[in-house]
Amino acid sequence: MAELKVNVTNLVKNYGSNHVLKGIDFKVANNEVVVLIGPSGSGKSTLLRCLNKLEEPTSGTIVIDGQDISDPKTDIDKARENIGMVFQHFNLFNNLSVSKNITLAPVELGKMSEEEAEKQARNLLETVGLEDKFDAMPASLSGGQKQRVAIARALAMKPDIMLFDEPTSALDPEMVGDVLNVMKKLAKEGMTMVVVTHEMGFAKEVADRVVFMADGNVVEEGTPEEVFDHPQNERTKSFLEKVI
Ligand code: ADP
Ligand code: MG
């Protein structure tokens, strides 16, 4: 039982001559909610994607739940099962019903029977406020509903950490609140979460820690009060002036 859920040390990611992550140290404790903020292009998505090896780090170590995921001996598929990821653009399977979207992975991976998975899907849809959408097709849903299905789908694997990459950035403003409320509920239930977002109200209310990245580095981090009310770094200050 590792006390740290995520322990990233000196993570470097280069795309050719583009140095995107320049030696990031990033830790997340069990049950902690970390909100990652920073200008576009600062490397936030790349960092998240390295955490479940959607991107291969150039160098550095990433330990999740005590497992070094850069170690070739680590079964990355197994490790990924415990990491839920929610993207800006939902990425639902549009040819499958809502329930199938949610039951697919746990059934295919032999985690549970079809029947158990369906029962779980009903519970998860209730959690995200969409219990009436079990048989619906994704095309009939609003963006906010699709994103809540995407969250339910990620939760179906019973992950012990959830990564969110700008989950509300593609939504109409009136949909944002419903998605953030689901995320707040998860945080309250003790889910370990890393959330990239521009929703500073959410960050202030829900984050245990806010990490500000710029230009491939962690520039500043602290409690929401420290970072939002008393930013120390000039880049943090100028970023916050633009977004708040
Ligand atoms: P953020 O999420 O903070 O906006 P990203 O992590 O998406 O930043 O991108 C950081 C930098 O990495 C940008 O300069 C971007 O162009 C570059 N980048 C991201 N993904 C790739 C890729 N697959 N190939 C080449 N460059 C990439
Ligand atoms: Mg991004």
UniProtKB/TrEMBL annotation:
<protein>
    <submittedName>
        <fullName>ABC superfamily ATP binding cassette transporter</fullName>
    </submittedName>
</protein>
<feature type="domain" description="ABC transporter">
    <location>
        <begin position="6"/>
        <end position="240"/>
    </location>
</feature>
<dbReference type="GO" id="GO:0016887">
    <property type="term" value="F:ATP hydrolysis activity"/>
</dbReference>
<keyword id="KW-0813">Transport</keyword>
<dbReference type="InterPro" id="IPR003439">
    <property type="entry name" value="ABC_transporter-like_ATP-bd"/>
</dbReference>
<keyword id="KW-0547">Nucleotide-binding</keyword>
<dbReference type="InterPro" id="IPR017871">
    <property type="entry name" value="ABC_transporter-like_CS"/>
</dbReference>
<dbReference type="InterPro" id="IPR003593">
    <property type="entry name" value="AAA+_ATPase"/>
</dbReference>
<dbReference type="InterPro" id="IPR030679">
    <property type="entry name" value="ABC_ATPase_HisP-typ"/>
</dbReference>
<dbReference type="InterPro" id="IPR027417">
    <property type="entry name" value="P-loop_NTPase"/>
</dbReference>
<dbReference type="GO" id="GO:0015424">
    <property type="term" value="F:ABC-type amino acid transporter activity"/>
</dbReference>
<dbReference type="GO" id="GO:0005524">
    <property type="term" value="F:ATP binding"/>
</dbReference>
<dbReference type="Pfam" id="PF00005">
    <property type="entry name" value="ABC_tran"/>
</dbReference>
<dbReference type="InterPro" id="IPR050086">
    <property type="entry name" value="MetN_ABC_transporter-like"/>
</dbReference>
<keyword id="KW-0067">ATP-binding</keyword>
